[in-house]
Amino acid sequence: MLSYAIKRIGLALLIIFVVMLVMYAMVFLVPGDPASLALGPRATPELKHELMVRMGLDQPIYVQVWNFFRNALTGDLGYDVWSKRPVSEMIAEVFPNTLFLGAVAMSIALVAGIGLGCLAVVWQGRTVDRVLAVLSVSMISIPSFVVAIYLLLVFAVWLGWFPAIGAGEAGDWGSQIRAVVLPAAAIAITWVGYLARLVRASMLEVMSANHVRTARAFGLTQAKIVLRYALRVAIVPVVAIVAVGFGSILSSAVFVETVFSRPGIGTLITSAVQKRDFPVVMGCVLFMTAFYLTVVTLADLLMAKLDPRVRDTLRG
Amino acid sequence: MALNWSTDRRTLLKAGGGLFAGLAARPQFAWAADGDTLRLRATADLQVLDPKGIIGELDDIIPRCTQVTLVRLGDMRDGNQITPYAAKTFAWKDPKTIAFTLHDNLTWNNGFGPVTAEDVKFSFERIKGSDSAWAYQFEKLDNVEVIDQHSGLIHLTEPFKPFVYISLPYYGGHIVCKAAVEKAGGSYTTQIAAECGPFLLDKWEQNQKVTLVANPDWKGEKPAFSKVEYFIVTDDQTALLAYEADSFDYTRVAMSAAKALKANLPKNSQLIEAQSTRYVWLTINMNAEKLKDPRVRQAIQYAYDGDAVLQGSYDGLTGRSAGVVQPGTKFAREKNKIATRDIEKAKALLAEAGVSALELNLYCLTDSVSQSTAQIIQSSLAEAGITVNIQPTEDAAYWALGDKTQGDGYKNIEMVLMNFAGGIDPSENLVWFRPDQIGVYNWSFFDSKEFEDLYQKGLVEQDEVKRKDIFNHMEDLMEDSGGFIFVCFEPFLAIYRSDIKPVILADGHPDPTQFTKA
Question: CA-to-CA distance for B207 and A262, rounded, in angstroms?
Answer without folding.
Answer: 8
